[in-house]
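The instructor's notes for this session suggest beginning with a concrete chain rather than abstract definitions. Hand out the sequence below and ask the class to guess, before any prediction is shown, which regions might be ordered.
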Amino acid sequence: MPVFTTRSGAVRGAPAGRSASVTAVLGIPYAAPPFGPRRFRGPRPARGWSGVRPCLTFGPVAPQSAELPGAPGWKPGDEDVLTVNVWTPGGSGGSLPVLVWIHGGAFAFGSSAQPDFEGAALAGLGLVVVSCNYRLGFEGFGHVPGNAPVFRGTTGDICPDNRGLLDQIAALEWVRDNIAAFGGDPDRVTVAGQSAGATSVACLIAMDRARGLFRRAALHSAVNSCATAESAARTTEEVARAAGVPATREALLTASPQSLVAASDAVVEACRRDPASGRRHHDPAIFGPVVDGALLRADPLTAMFAGAGAEAGIDLLVCRTTEEYALFEAVGSSADIATEARFDAFARDFGLPVALVRGYRDRAGGASFRETYQALQGDLLFAEYSDRLAEAHARAGGTAFLAHFDRRSGGSPARPVRAWHCADVPFAFGTLDDEDVHFLVGGPPGDADRELSARMMRSWADFATCGDPGWERLGEGRDPGADVHHWRTAGEAGGRGPSSERAESGAALRALWRDAGLPILTP
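After discussion, reveal the predicted structure:
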């Protein structure tokens, strides 16, 4: 079995499933367990070990209540949650490009052990692939009273905000210090993520603390979510009340991780059930990165427009799907917007301009209010935000590439394939054949799906290697629609038909958004 020497000690991996040429080294601690006296504090280095540590299974996941298909759940008592996983083809002497994956999950659930994130197929293309776990929910993103900046641009170690982002930085520092042992080049790191993971990556681009830890970034379906100091404090009050403790550092430290997970779930469920809860009724995600004025000085979109990524010389690849919010309807987590009154209330809750709302209703034709809501909410939360991140980076002088995932082939008349949130991820990782991802991609893949997956994987690999995914970059001052790459199966690509009609409709809706301001949503 291959053995690799890290700064903390030697680790042993194993062949990655059927990929005999790729070695998987799983569950390597990159920081100390963030509990006990270290709870609510910034990450600290992992303790070293003697001998060779077998790293053959994923590490424990962060505290959460989610039970996701094919992935482990959290069990109270699991504390060594800050681990990385490495897939490497090896034998390269520290010269291979590195791709670091940050998982999504509304900043409250998920893990690197999800089957769609298995890195062996990508590593087979000549990459060292890394994924990491980080603190979630209140443990990672809850505001704990009592912290204060030490000096401008840094945060004290007593219960800082954005502990989950600090964990991600620690994981990237581990990559910088150790990845050469696995064949990776620490000067050619691409950090990638989807949904909350993509927004995490956007935050890392905006943060001085992460400067120099990566050269490129890939964002899939970034979520429009960034808390203010005030909104984060209000969330703490709600969670503490649900947990039955005062909203003080001392009291929150006495509350178990399990009780804070349950309290957070109770706050989310109360918003979901109450139409009068405003924005949170439609988007009951209560945690997100906090613009604390120290670690994160501005929301990522504002920072990108100000040139944060361009000044750092970061190449950016952004992808989003064309039916983002259809997934939430399919899994039963969407608000029930079945009437004109409920639709109008949604528009008021988010302060959406009348012209924008009318435009969506006109483009929808005979669609129901529920379907129109899905289209508008998906663009508000994910699609428009993602597009604007790419455009902002390009306009600031950075190199940016933009793609839309619009694969619709396959499925059945009773259950057509939807290009919804998360559907693109198994294609990019080459994990289509895992049964646990078939719900996301509409069933077992066909040959056209595998061909599309091969193209998307090659695009990621080329971007991580040389910064070119295979299509034109967004041009400064040009109509961005001319430079957007569309991911479709071979049978869907090119010519007139439904795919080109969807593109034209999407361009019309984008024109409406350009005339409307995009609100930065606060959890």
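Then share the key points. The chain has a mean pLDDT of 91. The chain has 18 helices and 17 strands.
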